[in-house]
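Hi all, posting the design record for the shared folder.

TITLE: backbone redesign
STEP: 1 of 1
STRUCTURE INPUT:
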């Protein structure tokens, strides 16, 4: 009953068992396709922007890029989202935004991913354009219209408000809640 029960990782084993049985129940083949991933999260029938975002998340979870998320990839993703250190999460977010994989995020990439996230998470208190401009204004140190991984991590880590905003906007824990609690029946 002591404080040690709330320590992260304290109940990791039963939690893994829970995820494993959930994963195998939803996905008996052990290989989750993009279609099944969307179905599991109750995210079918999204607009093209939302679809694009979910595909990006799927591709990043699919570590070996075989077109499926297997249980180990699934657990690695869950671990990162729940227990990952902030710089690991920022690297993950960076990868998510860098749609063409060239190692830099430009305004168009950030705008399209934020628009997609708004389509899924609902309305936020600023438009995708305002959000994108604010981020570039704050952390594009050399004003070249692109953010490198280093600029992104340093910029976000040194700005408490921005860190909170990014963490909230791109929080995947609602996605994980769906996975933990079963499918949503109402959207």
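Okay, here is what came back for every position:
SEQUENCE:
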């Amino acid at each position: 009953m002591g404080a040690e029960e709330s320590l992260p990782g304290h109940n990791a084993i039963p939690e893994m068992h829970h995820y494993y049985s959930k994963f195998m129940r939803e996905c008996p083949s052990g290989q989750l396709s993009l279609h099944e991933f969307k179905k599991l999260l109750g995210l079918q029938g999204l607009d093209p922007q939302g679809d694009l975002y979910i595909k990006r998340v799927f591709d990043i979870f699919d570590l070996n890029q075989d077109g499926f998320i297997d249980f180990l990839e699934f657990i690695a993703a869950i671990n990162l989202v729940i227990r990952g250190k902030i710089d690991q999460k920022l690297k993950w977010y960076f990868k998510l935004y860098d749609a063409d994989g060239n190692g830099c995020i430009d305004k168009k990439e950030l705008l399209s991913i934020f628009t997609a996230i708004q389509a899924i998470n609902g309305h936020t208190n600023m438009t995708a354009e305002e959000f994108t401009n604010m981020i570039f204004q704050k952390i594009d140190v050399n004003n070249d219209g692109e953010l490198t991984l280093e600029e992104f991590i340093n910029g976000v880590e040194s700005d408490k408000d921005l860190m909170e905003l990014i963490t909230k906007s791109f929080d995947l824990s609602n996605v994980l809640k769906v996975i933990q609690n079963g499918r949503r029946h109402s959207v």
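COMMENT: Residues 1-11, 183-187 have pLDDT under 50 and may be disordered.
Let me know if anyone wants the other runs.
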